[in-house]
Amino acid sequence: RGGAAGDLDLAGRHVVVSAGGTREYLDPVRFLGNRSSGLQGYALARAAVARGAEVTLVSANVALPDPAGAKVVRVETTGQLRDAVVGAAAGADAVVMAAAPADFRPTDVSTSKIKKAGDGSAPSIGLQQNPDILHEISTERARPGTVVVGFAAETGDDTGSVLDLAREKLARKGCDLLVVNDVSGGAVFGSPDNQAVLLGADGSATEVPRGSKTALAHVIWDAVVRRLPAG
Ligand code: CTP
Ligand code: CA
């Protein structure tokens, strides 16, 4: 961490953090979801409180205790996450999208529980794309100085390396910083540790050695603080 321990370098700042994974319902009891635990987002929220920020934590389906001193807004779907984050972002100095929003939702949601057909056939699920929250808050900033941070978990593929794909994603999303996890070696999901590269829209790349999600959270806030307009 850049500042001295105990620095209140986010005092007087309002930050928004999203955490967890959204669910998209097929019927009243079933959903499409993902494995995000919310640990990194919660670590970011706790770290920001410790540095003096007013923190709004938009939490999607997370089984973790509320961070002391943060305002927690609970959501389930990507649509609800979008509304909560866009609403809170209007008055924010920084927004960090650590949540894993479901990219798609079922085209039709059944109001009653879907039943099996007697003939052994299976239903098809039609999907439509969800709104891209990070793109929206990056390109339609209510306050020009708001610092916007995204996350990307990449494996690399035939079209590019992890960092190539991440650079493209940073440009496409329009955010200021992208926290990149290389997940080709296995799962970071639910792990207390994380390893990342912090890419800046200014072309910077900072390797963050393997360490706790709390340590990574402080590195991310260090980078945010450096980009905040004086206020
Ligand atoms: N994100 C978002 N809204 C979405 C999907 C993703 O705000 N509908 C945010 C995530 O919170 C994350 C960043 O965008 O901070 C990158 O997420 P990722 O899933 O890697 O991006 P996608 O654009 O969905 O790309 P991909 O096709 O690789 O999943
Ligand atoms: Ca995605």
UniProtKB/TrEMBL annotation:
UniProt-annotated binding residues for CTP: 103, 113, 131-134, 151, 169, 173
Free-text cofactor note: Binds 1 FMN per subunit.
Function statement: Catalyzes two sequential steps in the biosynthesis of coenzyme A. In the first step cysteine is conjugated to 4'-phosphopantothenate to form 4-phosphopantothenoylcysteine. In the second step the latter compound is decarboxylated to form 4'-phosphopantotheine. Catalyzes two steps in the biosynthesis of coenzyme A. In the first step cysteine is conjugated to 4'-phosphopantothenate to form 4-phosphopantothenoylcysteine, in the latter compound is decarboxylated to form 4'-phosphopantotheine.
Segments crossing the lipid bilayer: none
Domain DNA/pantothenate metabolism flavoprotein C-terminal: 10-225
Annotated EC: 4.1.1.36, 6.3.2.5
Family, per entry: In the C-terminal section; belongs to the PPC synthetase family. In the N-terminal section; belongs to the HFCD (homo-oligomeric flavin containing Cys decarboxylase) superfamily.
Residue range from the parent sequence: 189 to 419 of 419
Protein name in the entry: Coenzyme A biosynthesis bifunctional protein CoaBC
Pathway membership: Cofactor biosynthesis; coenzyme A biosynthesis; CoA from (R)-pantothenate: step 3/5; Cofactor biosynthesis; coenzyme A biosynthesis; CoA from (R)-pantothenate: step 2/5
Keywords for the protein's UniProt record, in alphabetical order: Decarboxylase, Flavoprotein, FMN, Ligase, Lyase, Magnesium, Metal-binding, Multifunctional enzyme
CC cofactor: Mg(2+); FMN
Gene Ontology molecular function: phosphopantothenate--cysteine ligase activity; phosphopantothenoylcysteine decarboxylase activity
Location of region: Phosphopantothenate--cysteine ligase: 15-231
Reactions that this protein is recorded to catalyse: N-[(R)-4-phosphopantothenoyl]-L-cysteine + H(+) = (R)-4'-phosphopantetheine + CO2; (R)-4'-phosphopantothenate + L-cysteine + CTP = N-[(R)-4-phosphopantothenoyl]-L-cysteine + CMP + diphosphate + H(+)
